[in-house]
Amino acid sequence: MIKTDVLVIGSGPAGSSAAKHAALGGADVILIDKKSEIGAPKRCAEGVSKGGLENLGIKPNPRWVTKELDGVRLVSPNGTNVWMTSDEIKLPEAGYILERKVFDKHMAMDAARAGAEIRVKTLAKGMKKDKDSYIVTCEHMEDLFEIKAKIIIAADGPESRVARWAGLKTATKAKNMESGIQFEMCGVEMEKQDVIEFYFGSVAPGGYAWIFPKGEDIANVGLAVIALDTDKTAYQHLIEFVENCPATQNAQAVELNVGGDPVGGMPKKIYGDNLLVVGDAAGQVNPLTGGGIISGMTGGMHAGIVAAEAIVEEDYSEKKLKQYDKNVREDIGDEIDKYLKVKDYALSLSDEELDSVAKAFQDIEFKKVSTTELVKSLVKVSPKALLKLGKLI
Amino acid sequence: MIVKDWCMYCGECAGVCPKNLIEVKEITLIFDDKDCKECNTCVKACPISALEKG
Question: Tell me, what's the pLDDT at A7?
Fold first, then answer.
């Protein structure tokens, strides 16, 4: 049996961030991923904020940044545009579109350079408690073997199976699971090359559609729906969107991506004796945008730091590991709760109401692009929004 | 459960399965059928209709 201090299950950005910080804190770390290639296939529209990366201490690298963004375009169901770019406002949304297949590998390499041992194509099949540790059954090709770890960090994505083996309630309810689907396309004719576009309304019930530029004529064109809110599949919605959107009339898909995105916020409990849960597995996703790279990596960082401390103190109890919960909720918990309320409100609007909000937004001078700024403006133009969201600002 | 051969192993079904019965490997999906209560949550969640009740 292999023994280690910390076993991280899943090498997405959250898991790699956890492994890196646990290793930097002096712990022996093993990081496993079931896939043969970390980062592929992507299940993501690849947008990330500059500030978010900076806060995590990650310097942008031309090998995984495909596009620097200049702003945002919001499109209502009847085609009313709200442009929030540097022509219109002083501080447009500052962000990048990544190449996740490269980015994820680089994050795993950071973990390896910090001292973590990576094992690819290694699946966690089950887990049992053994005194003050867990024993995880792993599968690599035809070999079944066990890894005994003082602390498990569950970073197994939207599936979130590992935490459930330990008795935590991390399943995502169907009403909170976005079904995401996306083409990466070439020949996309965007009005502005460095603006991310969001399309709202019945084009994507329970979610929205997007076009995220990746340089030249390349873009991620996708959408997410709540399956319970529509009789069509996510794929049918995407085909319709691509058929109708002016930007994709001459576009060709070179890739099809699918995946779930948990947008119900963090479950009540994301830690236990010898266990921490991070990333999508812990609902660390902005419920409004569905973005989870930065929040997941932030969760991973806090988990890695606390895990390393716990190893030094030889205390892997729930009581000690609760520190992670406190740190991560202080850092991103309030934001997630706030965006959850804004999302619920936004999804309650009919196509006509969205059109009238978009029309009213055209007369507003935005100082910067942020969700808070958008909510402030929403409250200004809509009495219904003031009623529901007034308390948030 | 019948897994169609166009399944892309994204694991969304595993995430919504209330009983945690779905194991997603790199290119294999395994259902623990004996405990399945046929709630159909996974079938409905699949973005590309790759699951069908057996």
Answer: 99
